[in-house]
Amino acid sequence: MSSTKKKIAVIGGGFAGLGSVASLKEIGCFEPICFEKTSNYGGTWCYRETACEGVPSIMPTTIINYSKEMAALSTFPPRKEFNNFMRHHELFKYVSEFAAERDLLRHFQFDTEVMQVKRSEDYEKSGKWVVTVRNTQTTKVTTDVYDGVIVCVGHINRPKMPTYFGQSTFKGQIMHTHSLRGVQPFHNKTVIVVGMGCSGLDAAVETSIVAKQVYLSTRSGAHVINRIGPSGYPYDYTLLRRYLLGLLDFLPATFVSWILETFYLDQCKFSSYWFTPTIWTWISTW
């Protein structure tokens, strides 16, 4: 390691962590060290057969909600043969090829959990940080000083499980989508999926293949966005435009939501399906 380069600790080896390491390498005056507490990179999009506590999770059939062109790294386009909306294994393949092409993994320390980050004693003068990590395989704890820290742990690494009146007396199975790996346990059963977000919709579709009946419960409805937009192009080609984002600078979010819902998003009659949304699109999204 060059003594002239500043040492940067990157916490988390998901997409944000990989992107941070790549950017630091590209700048040239930094030496990144990425701490990833699991044995692999990719974060949410690294599919695991078994759900792990504190680790993001996806289902076997999960598909990304952005088109491959709009979700791509600007200097590294995905393969042409990948689906327009990549399946999770395609997205992981894509980021793996990016990591190999940029030689990112030599900057990774796998099976390493960050235990503590604090300012150094001379922080006011040096601006340095003290980082303590633990190897999850050997339990060895080490501490080192870094010139900077980038936190890339994401926000969906722990399931949020609600509680309901009478839940303790329910005789059936209760689980979070974080743990959903196969749908055979729901064969010929009646299932209720609580929540109409991305995971809830994925779970409803998957379980409906084998379940006797699936109910989808939503507190405030939802806006349904078709992946296919005008002229057959992916929807985000239409939505992710400078002029739409520019409207937010001088128009109320409610008015921008009305524009989106009237001309772009809501292409079905919600009352027919009993999930009329009660909140504006832009407000519920951000």
Automatic annotation (TrEMBL):
GO molecular function, one term: flavin adenine dinucleotide binding
Source species: Trichonephila clavata
Compartments where found: Endoplasmic reticulum membrane
Keyword hit for Flavoprotein: yes
Keywords: Endoplasmic reticulum, FAD, Flavoprotein, Membrane, Monooxygenase, NADP, Oxidoreductase, Transmembrane, Transmembrane helix
Known role: Broad spectrum monooxygenase that catalyzes the oxygenation of a wide variety of nitrogen- and sulfur-containing compounds including xenobiotics. Catalyzes the S-oxygenation of hypotaurine to produce taurine, an organic osmolyte involved in cell volume regulation as well as a variety of cytoprotective and developmental processes.
Cofactor or coenzyme needed: FAD
Membrane topology field: Single-pass membrane protein
Reaction it catalyzes: trimethylamine + NADPH + O2 = trimethylamine N-oxide + NADP(+) + H2O; hypotaurine + NADH + O2 + H(+) = taurine + NAD(+) + H2O; hypotaurine + NADPH + O2 + H(+) = taurine + NADP(+) + H2O; N,N-dimethylaniline + NADPH + O2 + H(+) = N,N-dimethylaniline N-oxide + NADP(+) + H2O
Enzyme class at the top of the EC tree: oxidoreductase
GO cellular component terms given for this protein: endoplasmic reticulum membrane
SUPFAM superfamilies to which the protein is assigned, alphabetical: FAD/NAD(P)-binding domain
Protein name, per record: Flavin-containing monooxygenase
Enzyme Commission number(s): 1.-.-.-
Membership in a protein family: Belongs to the FMO family.
